[in-house]
Structures are given as structure tokens and as C-alpha cells.
User: Fold this.
Amino acid sequence: MIARSWAVVSKPTLMIGMILAWTNSVLGCGSSRQDLDPVLQDVPKQIVETTAAITNDPNNPILYYKRALLLQTQGKHVEAIRDLNETLERAPDFYRANDARGVSYFRLGNKPAALKDFDRALQFDKDLSHIYQIRGAHFLKIREWEKAEADLEQLIRLEPENARNYYLRGVARNGQRRYEPAIVDFDAAIELDATKHVARLSRGQALEALGRTEAALWDFDKCVELAPDESDYRRVRGRLLERLGRLSEAKNDLLKVVELNPKAPKIHFDLASLCLKLNELPEAVERYGLEIEQNPSEGAYHARGTTLIQIGKFAEAIPDFDWLLKKNPHNAVALTNRAVCWAFTNQPYFALNDANLAIQRDPNYFHAYNVRGDAWYRLGDQQKSLEDFQMAVKTAPNYSVGYENLGNTYWRMGDLDLAVKNYSQALELDPQAVKPRASRVSILIELKQ
Assistant:
């Protein structure tokens, strides 16, 4: 993450100011700030005067160059490029024009052309720090980490006391999963400027990636302490606290994120997931609803629907699966989940239909066989029910619920030995299961009597 306060591309006026300084030097002018200000403050007049000068001396490359820089201050990059082309046509080795044209191409979004011009300029002058800055930031953005690191190496060579440069090189190294050298860079950034909390945050993320969670948490705690109203810091800390099993603390951090930034992406989804882990299912349903209001995604509808099933609100869950199936009628999972809802709202024929469709879409989806087996049971066909439960465990041999349902079916059919066998298999796969254990005990007592 690159903090907004650490912008890596200079504002247009500042960048042009730098280039104007070089122009003034070429024209025999001073390059101090005082010399630049009048030029920048009276740009329209300067453009008119320079245009007149070009009329009188049309082969002077410096005049086209000067007008291009003035046009850049007005954001007229297409016109500036036209003048810089004229400059380079008359003076092919005037690399300052390549430099300036690269800036305009970059502003217009033509990154390949910009990079080509920057490369040309650097062939003449390896110390153009702003090019390394612009180009390095671009490579970071498109995740070309090694190229970004190379440019930031050069920037550090030229500006060894700039904390931002070490931070950005650390980001590039993090991107390559070279966490140890990244931490060294973040250390340097923090030492040079302790107020740049984003470097501390990034160091914490690198430490977390190395499994040094306590050290990472210390950095995240410090970030929150120094910038308590920065929602990103609380969110990152909350995720680590969740990983560490400190769920209530994690939830408090995410609730604070909602307070600070109610529209933070996926914040309600993450809170809902935490609520599930805390067994706070009604709140999870509410949070998924808030997520759907902000971002009606398939993941949020699926999660809310399955959570409603867990708390037994089957009728309320059906519209969520309807929405999913409208988006994708071939969604076997949504069809199966809706079949569950039909079954528990006493509509077994609808359940059977959805389960059949799910199996047509995915013949190996074990849960669909299990649900169809339940629908056949509710319709009074124990043989078909038995066959579907058998298919469920055939397609998923570790599916404990399938063995439990086989046990139930064999018990109802009077085959107590096979019932005990399947209950035992269910318990072997899920030792904490309560229903198979109780059923097996009941059968064993019956057999003993």
C-alpha cells in the first residue's frame, strides 16, 4: 500500500518547474526559485511571446522546447508533444526534450512511449532523479517489482536521505517476497522519518509474512497508536488478530473501521465472517445484508443464504439462492442449497427438482445426492433415498453426513448391523458428531435387549 501523503509522482507544476529551470539555464537565465516564479505566473503571456519568437526564428529548437514546457503547465500535453517533436527534429541529441516529452506521454497514459523517451534521456544523464521516481512508481503500480527496485536503487543513490525512497524499494522487495531486505528498507525509512507510519505498517506485513506475528502485531499496534483514525491500520491489525484467534479484539478493530470509513470495501463481509467464527449468526446475516447493499456480489448472497440455513430460516434464504440462480442458472451449489430450503419448508417435489438439476450440472457433487436422498425420504421412497446416500459417500468417501444418513436409512429399513456400521464410520470421520453417536447407542441397547 502506498500512502496518499507519499505521492511518488510530482505535481505537474513542480515537475515542469524543474524542467523550466533547465531551460532557463540553457537560455542563459538563472535557475533559482525566484527566477522561475515569474515564468510560471505569466504563462499565457510567455506562450504568446515564444510563439512570436518561433515565427521569427522557426529553426530554433530551444524555442519549441520552451513553449512545450509552458504548454505542459496548462495541461496541454498533446500540443506540448507536437512542439517537443519539432525540438527533437532539429536537435536529435537534446535529451531534455525526450525527458519532457516522456512526462507528457505519461500524463496522457501512453506509458510505452513515455518509457522509451525516459530511457533515451537516461542514456545522456544517469542522474535524472525524477525519471527514476516516475518510472519506479509506474513499475510498482503494474507489479513489475524487479524493474521498480532497480529504479529505486538509483533514486536512493541520488537521494540517500529521502525516507520515501527506502519505503518504496521495500514495497518492491515485498512484492518479490524478499521480506528480510524489505524489512531493512522499512527500518531505514522509519529511522529517517518516524512520522511515516505506512513504512511501519509495511514492515509489520513483512514480519507477518515471515511468521513473526508478535513483532508484526507490535508494529500494527504502534500504527494505530500514532494514527488512531486511520482505518487501514485497524483493518490490517484486525486481520492479524483474527489469524491469532483473538476474535473479539479483531471484531472491535473492524467495527472501528466501519465507524471511520463506512464504505470501506468488503468491510461488512469481513465482519460477517468474524461473526460466524464467534457463533453470532444473526449479526452475521445482518452484516451480509449491509454488504449486499454496498456491493451485491455472489459471495455475499451465497454467504447470507447459507447462514440463514444454519439458523433455520429456510424460507428467508430462498430469495438469496434465487438471485444467484438468476445470475447463473447452472450453479449446482445454489441449486442444492435451494433444494435444502424447499425440503425444510415441506416442499419435497421442488427439492427433488433442484437436486436433479444440480446433479445434471455436476454429477460428482456429493451434497446434491445427499439432498436428493433426503427429498426421496420425505416422499416415502426409502430405496431411492438409500441409493442417493450411497452415491453421496461414493463420490465423497470422507463425507460424514452421508454415512450418518445411510445409518438412518438402514435403521428405518430394519438393518441394524449396517446402521451401526455406517454410524461408526460417520463418527470415525467426525468424532464430535452427536446424532450418529446417540443413534448408535440406541441401536446397541436395542440389540442387547
User: Anything to note?
Assistant: The chain is about 75% helix and 0% strand. The radius of gyration is 33 Å.
